[in-house]
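Reviewers of the previous submission asked for a worked example of the structure-prediction workflow described in the proposal, so we include one complete record here. The input consisted solely of the amino acid sequence. No template or homolog information was supplied to the procedure at any stage.
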Amino acid sequence: MIRVLVVDDHPVVRSGLVGLLGSEADLEVVGEAGNGREGVTLAASLTPDVVLMDLRMPVLDGASATAEITAAGTARVLVLTTYDTDGDILRAVEAGATGYLLKDTPRDQLLAAVRAAARGETVLAAPLAAKLMRQVRGGDQLTPRELEVLALVAQGKSNPDIARDLFIGEATVKSHLLHVFDKLGVSDRTAAVTHALERGLLPSPGG
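From that input alone, the workflow returned the following structure tokens.
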């Protein structure tokens, strides 16, 4: 019997997972927690085989909770989240998570992942594996031209402005921005600038 602890701050999601896992003959839900701190405490007292861990939670986030649980050696952690940005994936894996799945993962795949995690196997959804490998290999580095475009975006310039400043076409500007979004794991200009500033890819304003 595989003992599972469910950690998620959304009661509806938690009850859905508990119902799904509890319907399997070889899986037993031994507890549920609504935040990362509670998850760490229950993992220590209940000693489950697998902890299904959400990422964004109050009190203590999922990556930090994962790090504490894996450091204690009490259970294997399988992250189940709606977030698939490179930074989130890397933080969870660096924290020691055995696997990383998205909440839209089909039922059968999720159940198979829990069983695989219990065996100590690494479980990573295919699109996320590609993102992680690119991040680890440094393949997400922005080119000098992409950094130029992003720096001008940070100055509040529009695509036509950037095209004029760099003597390139607007379509080329759009292409560079799409590559930047993909590499940084974001979907808009504001998030790209914020992420780049956080990672030190752009000089901080006034700095």
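The CA atoms of residues 140 and 207 lie 25 Å apart. We consider this example representative of the routine output the project will generate in years two and three.
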